[in-house]
Hints:
Layout: H1 7-15, H2 21-32, H3 52-59, H4 61-78, H5 83-101, H6 107-126
Helix pairs in contact: 2-4, 3-4, 4-6, 5-6
Amino acid sequence: MQPFHDRNRLARTTAGIAFSAATLLASFAPLTLSATPAAAASFDCHASGLSANEKTICDNLQLNDDDVKMATMYTMLKGLFAMGVSGDMADEQKAWLAKREACGTDVSCISDAYQERIDALQKLYDGIDKPI
C-alpha cells in the first residue's frame, strides 16, 4: 500500500468518510419505522400509567420519530462526554422533559419541543472538536 505523501489527496480521501450525527441517525432510520409505533425511543408505549403527553407521542408517527431521533442523539452524545458535561446534559434533559410534558396533548407544542431539543443536541455535537 502506498503511503499518503500528498496532503490534498489525504484530505479528499478522509472527507469521504466524515459524517455528522444526522447522517448517522439517517442510517438507522429504516430500523425505526413501523406502521404502528410499539415503543418510542425513550419509553415503552405499552406500559401502564403513560401520561397523556406520552400517549400522544405514541399515537403520532411523526412525534414518535422525533422521539427516536432525540433519544438516539442524546444517548450518543452523553457517552462522548465526561461527568461534568454529561451531568449538565442530564439536567437539561430533565428540564426539557418537564417542558414537553407541559404541552399535554398539543401535537404542535410537542413537535416544537422536540425540534428545540434536537437543535440543542445538534449544536452540542457541532461544537465538538473533530480531527477532520
